[in-house]
Design goal:
286 residues, two-stranded antiparallel ribbon, 2 domains, SIR2 family protein, 11 strands, nine-stranded mixed beta sheet
Length: 286
């Protein structure tokens, strides 16, 4: 096992390293009824949203752009209906990575996918769920907070959060317990603006995230949208700030992560899971 994986797993064990999950963490997840893979990355989401066909090249550039096109032509309801059907109404197979992460009883996880894998793995564990929201009137913050008591979710204010419970942060949304998504260009403009201004992160997370390090799993960073969300969510990170598992990183990714003080590990999610399952010092066997 590489020294990077040893340091990562030790940091996960003591709570100093926070997983940051991207689309690649859902590789291998399928609909058992049809065999179709879950749409998670930009291209697969666009094609799924367009009835299995690619959209125009300028819309294929990035999912938020394609989602904005759908919203403008068919209304926000059509976009939410697609995301609900994909992530709420389809029963997907279980991700081995998400199952492993849940067994570690980590204090804080960030999941930029819009699916419910992580929430389902925590279904027997009381936790706090933070969900990103956008374009809401009359509210100063761009998040909603839910308390899960082991049976059901209930909305709470940040002052009422039990900070001893695990925190699941879903910045781009989830259909459970209610449908909230950051999906279209307009959503991201609003959300990132408020994220930069400090209004999309609860106060207790701002305190807790100081001097943490991060493990970026399954996310490529060749798009400005992903980079801006990542940079602001990990604000206050330790130096070095952590690790990014990226096979064959591009020069753009190398420059960006270098500025953040994040070490690139030329490996993928499957490599990490293999190392994690064999690591005798993991929380699962501690």
């Amino acid at each position: 096992m590489s020294s990077a994986f040893e340091n990562i797993l030790a940091g996960l064990s003591d709570g100093s390293v926070v997983p940051y999950l991207g689309a690649g963490t859902l590789n291998g997840v399928i609909d058992p009824a049809t065999g179709k893979t879950i749409p998670a990355d930009s291209d697969s989401l666009i094609i799924a949203m367009n009835n299995g066909q690619p959209m125009a090249p300028k819309l294929m550039y990035e999912f938020p752009r394609a989602a904005m096109n759908v919203e403008l032509k068919r209304g926000r309801t059509a976009l939410n209906k697609f995301l609900d059907a994909t992530y709420r109404d389809t029963q997907w197979s279980t991700s081995a990575l998400h199952a492993w992460l849940a067994r570690q009883k980590l204090p804080y996880l960030i999941d930029t996918n819009r699916d419910t894998q992580l929430q389902k793995q925590y279904a027997a564990t009381p936790h706090t769920l933070i969900v990103g929201v956008a374009r809401v009137s009359g509210k100063a913050f761009r998040f909603r907070i839910f308390k899960y008591d082991g049976t059901s979710y209930s909305a709470i204010e940040q002052e009422a959060v039990d900070t001893s419970l695990p925190i699941l942060f879903k910045p781009l949304g989830t259909p459970l317990p209610e449908s909230n998504y950051i999906a279209s260009d307009a959503d991201f403009v609003d959300y990132i603006t408020e994220l930069m201004g400090g209004f999309a992160i609860p106060s207790f997370v701002k305190r807790m995230r100081q001097n943490k390090r991060y493990l970026l799993l399954g996310l490529r960073l060749n798009r400005d949208t992903d980079r801006m969300v990542f940079s602001d969510i990990i604000f206050g990170a330790d130096r070095p700030a952590g690790w990014a598992l990226i096979p064959h990183p591009t020069d753009k990714e190398k420059r960006y992560l270098g500025k953040l003080g994040i070490e690139i590990v030329n490996a993928d999610v499957a490599d990490f899971l293999t190392a994690a399952q064999s690591w005798h010092g993991s929380l699962a066997t501690a």
